[in-house]
Design a protein that fits this description.
Helix content is 44%, strand content 20%. It is built from 14 helices and 16 strands.
C-alpha cells in the first residue's frame, strides 16, 4: 500500500534497515529465532519490512497527499461539526482564531481520541479493547541484522515488550498492556517500561549498552473488538478513530490504510448521488466487516482469552512450547506466526495445527495411562499433569478473586467464539489473506 501511494521511494531514501528475521523471548529466554515466515510469499507481499520513525513516515504520507491535490491546513484542530441536510460545517481552531470549513462529508482519521468520533457519539472507551503503551528510541544497539525481538513476561501479561532495530545502532523499544488489566491491578506502565528496559539490556546479546535518546512517551490503541458502527450522518471513521488496530499486536498502521481504501468507494458513491445520510454510508460497515471479520474476529477471540491474568503462567508455558516447535517446523511457524502479524492468517490452518498438537499430546497421554506408565516419558507426564492442575487452579483463583468479572469474562469468551464460528462457517475466503485490496489497486 505504501508503494501504491507513491511513498516507498521517499522512505527508502533514508536507507532504513530491512527487517527480515524475528526472535521471541519467553520468561527472558530466547525461545525462537529465524526468518519471518510470511514475508515474500506472494507477489503482493514484500520480502522484508522496515522500521520507520513516525516523523519520517508521516511527512512522506503528507507530501504524497499534497502532491495528489489535498489542501493542508497546518496547526488547525477541529473541535466540533454540525450536519444540516446536505451541508456540513466544521469548527476548528488555528492558533487563537476560530475557523469554519464547509463541505459535504467528514472522515475521522484523527486517532484514538478522535474529535470526529466524539462529536458523532461514537468514541469508544471500553478498557477491554484498549491497550496502553510506553515506547522510546534508544541508541547503542550492536547487532548488524534486521531482527525484531518480542518479549513475553508474566509482568507484561496480557501484553508484550518489543525491540525493533534501525540503522545507525538505534532501536524502537517499548511495552504494551491491556488497559483493563492496568486498572484492575493498579499497574503503572512507566514502571513496566523501566523494568523492561533493564531486562532488555540484560538478556539481549546486542542491547547491553542501550541508552534512551529521549524520555519515553505513552500511547493508546483501540482494537477491532470495539469496532462499529463507524459511520454516521455526514461521515465515517477510519484507522485508530474507528478502532481498527490488531487485537493481538496492537499494530494499527496497516489496518488504518486498509480501512481508508475500503472507505473510498463508499464516499465516492455518496458524493456522486448527492447523499450524505447514514443509510448510504452504512455500506462502509458491510464492506469492512466482510473484509476484516474473517481474520480479526479470531484474533479478538484470542485476545479475549488472554485478558485473564490468572492464566498467564499457562499461556506463557504454551508460548514457549509453540516457539520450540516453530523452530523446527516451518509450516507450524507460518500458521501460528500469522496470528502475530502479517496478512496471511488462515484460520483453518491455525486450528488444524493447534488441534494436531493437542491431539498428539492427548493420545500420548492416554497411551501412557493405558500401559501403566511403562516406558513413558516422565518429563512429558509431569508437564501434562502440571497443565491440568494449573488450569483448574487458575480458574478457581480467577473466580474467587472477582466472581462478577470472571463470569463476565467467560461470557465474553463464549460470545466471541460463536462469532468466530459464524465467520468460519462461511464459504468465502479471507479477503486480507488474498490481498484483495492490493489487487484492486493494480
Amino acid at each position: 500500500m505504501i508503494q501504491q501511494m507513491g511513498c516507498l521511494k521517499a522512505l527508502e531514501r533514508s536507507s532504513p534497515l530491512p527487517i527480515s528475521h524475528s526472535a521471541t523471548y519467553v520468561d527472558s529466554q530466547r525461545s525462537y529465532s529465524g526468518r519471518i515466515p510470511f514475508y515474500g510469499l506472494h507477489r503482493n507481499m514484500p520480502p522484508h519490512g522496515y522500521i520507520i520513525p513516525r516523523d519520517i513516515l508521516d511527512f512522506a504520507l503528507l507530501d504524497a497527499a499534497i502532491s495528489s491535490g489535498v489542501t493542508f491546513q497546518d496547526s488547525t484542530y477541529m473541535h466540533s461539526f454540525c450536519v444540516e441536510r446536505r451541508s456540513l460545517e466544521i469548527r476548528a481552531r488555528s492558533g487563537k482564531r476560530e475557523v469554519l470549513f464547509h463541505g459535504h462529508l467528514v472522515v475521522g482519521a484523527d486517532g484514538v481520541n478522535s474529535a470526529v468520533a466524539r462529536c458523532a457519539g461514537l468514541l469508544q472507551k471500553d478498557p477491554r479493547y484498549m491497550a496502553v503503551s510506553q515506547r522510546a528510541y534508544a541508541e547503542g544497539f550492536t547487532g548488524k541484522t534486521g531482527e525484531a525481538a518480542f518479549f513475553f513476561e508474566k509482568d507484561l501479561f496480557p501484553g508484550y515488550g518489543w525491540m525493533f532495530p534501525m540503522r545507525g545502532g538505534r532501536v524502537n523499544c517499548g511495552v504494551g498492556i491491556l488497559a483493563e488489566t492496568c486498572r484492575r491491578e493498579a499497574i503503572q506502565v512507566p514502571m513496566l517500561f523501566s523494568r523492561f528496559l533493564e531486562r532488555l539490556r540484560r538478556v539481549h546479546p546486542h542491547c547491553s549498552g542501550l541508552r534512551l535518546c529521549r524520555p519515553a512517551i505513552g500511547g493508546i490503541v483501540k482494537t477491532y473488538g470495539a469496532e462499529g458502527p463507524n459511520y454516521f450522518h455526514g461521515g465515517l471513521l477510519i484507522g485508530d478513530a474507528g478502532s481498527f488496530a490488531d487485537p493481538i499486536t496492537g499494530e494499527g498502521i496497516t489496518p488504518a490504510m486498509e480501512s481508508a481504501l475500503l472507505a473510498i468507494p463508499v464516499l465516492t458513491r455518496a458524493l456522486e448521488r448527492g447523499r450524505t445520510d447514514s443509510e448510504i454510508l452504512s455500506a462502509y460497515e458491510r464492506s469492512y466487516r466482510n473484509y476484516f471479520d474473517p481474520s480479526m474476529l479470531f484474533l479478538d477471540y484470542c485476545a479475549t482469552i488472554l485478558r485473564n491474568k490468572h492464566f498467564s503462567r499457562l499461556w506463557l508455558d504454551a508460548a514457549a512450547r509453540a516457539c520450540s516447535r516453530a523452530q523446527s517446523d516451518v509450516e507450524f511457524a507460518k500458521a501460528i506466526g500469522a496470528c502475530f502479524g502479517g496478512l496471511e492468517l488462515d484460520l483453518s490452518r491455525v486450528l488444524s495445527q493447534v488441534g494436531l498438537s493437542v491431539a498428539r499430546d492427548l493420545v500420548g497421554f492416554l497411551v501412557q495411562v493405558s500401559s501403566g506408565w511403562q516406558n513413558s516419558d516422565a518429563r512429558t507426564n509431569r508437564r501434562i499433569w502440571a497443565n491440568v492442575v494449573q488450569s483448574v487452579s487458575s480458574c478457581w483463583h480467577s473466580l474467587l478473586a472477582d466472581p462478577a468479572w470472571h463470569l463476565g469474562w467467560v461470557f465474553d469468551v463464549q460470545q466471541k467464539w460463536f462469532r468466530v464460528l459464524r465467520a468460519f462457517s462461511s464459504d468465502a475466503s479471507d479477503p486480507r489473506a488474498s490481498s484483495a485490496l492490493l489487487k484492486a489497486l493494480d
